[in-house]
Amino acid sequence: MDFRACVLHPAGGEPIEATVRGRLMGPRRSLGNALVVGDVAHYVEEGGQAVVTEVTPRRNTFSRRGAGERAAEQVVAANLDQVVVVASIVQPQFRAGLVDRMLCQAEHAGLPARVAINKCDLVPDDEAQALLDDYVRAGYPAHRLSARTGEGVEALRRACGGRRSLFAGHSGVGKSTLLSALAPGVELREGLVNPRTGKGRHTTSAAWLIAPEPDLELIDTPGVRAFGLWGIGPRDLDQAWPEFRRFLGKCRFADCRHESEPGCAIRAAAEAGEISARRWESFRKLRAELEQEGAPR
Ligand SMILES: Nc1nc2c(ncn2[C@@H]2O[C@H](COP(=O)(O)OP(=O)(O)O)[C@@H](O)[C@H]2O)c(=O)[nH]1
Ligand SMILES: [Mg+2]
Ligand SMILES: [Zn+2]
């Protein structure tokens, strides 16, 4: 029987390994979405082994569309306080579509999000600043960072204090390096809590909580190359662009797609420089993609 292990962080105690009651698992005898990072679980001791018996209802979930042909939700983590979307400008190149999808998914989950532009040591200051400005104007707190030089790391640590924070981003942008900078010495601790699989942080395929201090809870996620939205259809999309909100309802047509319709208030705002042209373009691309998928999700 394939009882998968998890790691529990009892309040005020050391992390412990636990197995999970079979009935919590799905038909394929895998945990799937039944227990994810951030879940609050009840457990019992049975013959010296902790066994999870129940998962407390979640106050929020950050999900994505699972990989694979069939549309399926993949819950990445639960009970979060914020999402930190990490990106770089070069190595790898900035991908607006990916960043904006993640922000959009956070918005959909009702979670505050912030943008962290890492590897700023590799680009001219004004280039980083222009990108940060796009997000600041959209209403997102944005950080200029370099995990290598340490720039911005303290400010990000303060922004994460007391807020369980999920770090998400394209692979290679430096998420893991950044988390090590935010939580020095955490490698050792991971060695202690994850002995069964023998996998280190860089090889784990699931999201992973590190809590170097009681007040600092950071969740690393595996780097991705693509991020599919979950639970958001083309018609809800404009609600997930916070800087659009003050213009919504002002288009000539109630069902305006904010594409090239006459009297579109969003387009007018983008052309007047009141919202970022890049964010508008990113919205249109994503909306077109969701329409293509054709699923009224
Ligand atoms: N120049 C530079 N390189 C960085 C920075 N942060 C991380 N890296 C490098 O980028 C590579 C990918 O980092 P990693 O943390 O594994 O990325 P992840 O896939 O997002 O977790 C590694 O070789 C890091 O040393 C940074 O701020 N500046
Ligand atoms: Mg990583
Ligand atoms: Zn419009």
TrEMBL record:
<dbReference type="InterPro" id="IPR010914">
    <property type="entry name" value="RsgA_GTPase_dom"/>
</dbReference>
<dbReference type="GO" id="GO:0046872">
    <property type="term" value="F:metal ion binding"/>
</dbReference>
<feature type="binding site">
    <location>
        <begin position="169"/>
        <end position="177"/>
    </location>
    <ligand>
        <name>GTP</name>
    </ligand>
</feature>
<keyword id="KW-0963">Cytoplasm</keyword>
<dbReference type="InterPro" id="IPR030378">
    <property type="entry name" value="G_CP_dom"/>
</dbReference>
<feature type="binding site">
    <location>
        <position position="264"/>
    </location>
    <ligand>
        <name>Zn(2+)</name>
    </ligand>
</feature>
<dbReference type="InterPro" id="IPR027417">
    <property type="entry name" value="P-loop_NTPase"/>
</dbReference>
<dbReference type="InterPro" id="IPR004881">
    <property type="entry name" value="Ribosome_biogen_GTPase_RsgA"/>
</dbReference>
<keyword id="KW-0479">Metal-binding</keyword>
<comment type="function">
    <text>One of several proteins that assist in the late maturation steps of the functional core of the 30S ribosomal subunit. Helps release RbfA from mature subunits. May play a role in the assembly of ribosomal proteins into the subunit. Circularly permuted GTPase that catalyzes slow GTP hydrolysis, GTPase activity is stimulated by the 30S ribosomal subunit.</text>
</comment>
<protein>
    <recommendedName>
        <fullName>Small ribosomal subunit biogenesis GTPase RsgA</fullName>
        <ecNumber>3.6.1.-</ecNumber>
    </recommendedName>
</protein>
<keyword id="KW-0699">rRNA-binding</keyword>
<keyword id="KW-0342">GTP-binding</keyword>
<feature type="binding site">
    <location>
        <position position="251"/>
    </location>
    <ligand>
        <name>Zn(2+)</name>
    </ligand>
</feature>
<dbReference type="GO" id="GO:0005737">
    <property type="term" value="C:cytoplasm"/>
</dbReference>
<keyword id="KW-0690">Ribosome biogenesis</keyword>
<keyword id="KW-0694">RNA-binding</keyword>
<feature type="binding site">
    <location>
        <begin position="118"/>
        <end position="121"/>
    </location>
    <ligand>
        <name>GTP</name>
    </ligand>
</feature>
<dbReference type="Pfam" id="PF03193">
    <property type="entry name" value="RsgA_GTPase"/>
</dbReference>
<feature type="binding site">
    <location>
        <position position="258"/>
    </location>
    <ligand>
        <name>Zn(2+)</name>
    </ligand>
</feature>
<feature type="domain" description="EngC GTPase">
    <location>
        <begin position="78"/>
        <end position="225"/>
    </location>
</feature>
<comment type="similarity">
    <text>Belongs to the TRAFAC class YlqF/YawG GTPase family. RsgA subfamily.</text>
</comment>
<dbReference type="GO" id="GO:0003924">
    <property type="term" value="F:GTPase activity"/>
</dbReference>
<dbReference type="GO" id="GO:0019843">
    <property type="term" value="F:rRNA binding"/>
</dbReference>
<keyword id="KW-0862">Zinc</keyword>
<feature type="domain" description="CP-type G">
    <location>
        <begin position="69"/>
        <end position="227"/>
    </location>
</feature>
<feature type="binding site">
    <location>
        <position position="256"/>
    </location>
    <ligand>
        <name>Zn(2+)</name>
    </ligand>
</feature>
<keyword id="KW-0378">Hydrolase</keyword>
<dbReference type="GO" id="GO:0005525">
    <property type="term" value="F:GTP binding"/>
</dbReference>
<keyword id="KW-0547">Nucleotide-binding</keyword>
<comment type="subunit">
    <text>Monomer. Associates with 30S ribosomal subunit, binds 16S rRNA.</text>
</comment>
<dbReference type="GO" id="GO:0042274">
    <property type="term" value="P:ribosomal small subunit biogenesis"/>
</dbReference>
